Amino acid sequence: MDAHLKETQKDSRQVYDGHFLKVQQDTIVLPDGKEAIREYIRHPGAVAVLPLFDDGSVLMERQFRYPLDRVFIEFPAGKIDPGEDTLACAKRELREETGYTATDWQYVCTIHNAIAYSDERLLLYVARGLKEGERKLDDGEFLDIYKAPLAELLEQVRNGQITDVKTVIGVFWLEKIVNGDWTPPPQP
């Protein structure tokens, strides 16, 4: 069905091998037979947690992000370790970054946030039945946590205070879930 759009790899080489990210440069054959170069980031994948309290408020983070030189409002999130189950990763990240644990977990969706230059995928989970505990931040990790009403987060998306894509999508999903408009699909 989509064969007329398919690009085929002719050769591939890794041009950067970092601690966390790797960069590939591939020569590809376009649908019309011409060749082109594709450069993209290999990413191990990540999870984002949408921590929802019984009162409808949401647990959020504020964290400085170096590439854009500013603090962002985000959901707890982190990369998937090699061989790690995605739900186990979500539970680990919530506990490490916020100190909270949850009794009820629900897969929401998988997003691809930078499809033109990265193979990164993010799996979003709603966490309910939250119980406070002790944070265990990674070495070199600094962030603040706070509770916010969902309506406030929606307004922050609307007015541009929240621009992180996983958080924007997560806030919209939470609105639909809380209102009973959407039921997340089973995890593929």
Task: Kindly describe this structure.
The chain has 188 residues and is an alpha+beta fold. The chain has 2 domains: 3-42, no CATH class; 46-178, Nucleoside Triphosphate Pyrophosphohydrolase. It is built from 3 helices and 10 strands. It has helices at residues 86-98, 150-158, 165-178, and strands at 8-17, 22-29, 35-42, 46-51, 57-65, 70-74, 77-79, 101-111, 122-131, 143-149. The strands form 3 sheets. The chain has a 4-stranded mixed β-sheet, sandwiched between helices. It has a 3-stranded antiparallel β-sheet with strand order 1-2-3, with no helix packed on it. It has a 3-stranded antiparallel β-sheet with strand order 6-5-10. Helix 2 packs across helix 3 (165-178). The radius of gyration is 19 Å and the shape is globular.
- H/E topology pattern: EEEEEEEHEEEHH
Q: In the residues, how many domains can be counted?
A: 2
pLDDT under 50 segments (min length 5)? none
Can you list the strand order of the major beta sheet?
Answer: 7-4-9-8
Q: CATH homologous superfamily of the largest domain - what is it?
A: Nucleoside Triphosphate Pyrophosphohydrolase
Mean pLDDT, to the nearest integer, reads 97
- Principal-axes shape call: globular
Q: Hey, roughly how much beta strand do the residues contain?
A: 35-45%
Number of helices: 3
Q: Could you describe the largest sheet, including whether it forms a barrel? A: 4 strands, mixed
Query: What would the CATH topology of the largest domain be?
Result: Nucleoside Triphosphate Pyrophosphohydrolase
User: Rounded to an integer, what's the Rg over CA atoms?
Assistant: 19 Å
Instruction: Please bin the fraction of helical residues.
Output: 10-25%
- Tell me the total number of β-strands: 10
- Distance between the amino and carboxyl termini: 22 Å
Q: Please state the second-level CATH architecture of the largest domain.
A: Alpha-Beta Complex
CATH class wording of the largest domain: Alpha Beta
Summing up helix and strand content along with how strands pair, one would put the structural category as alpha+beta
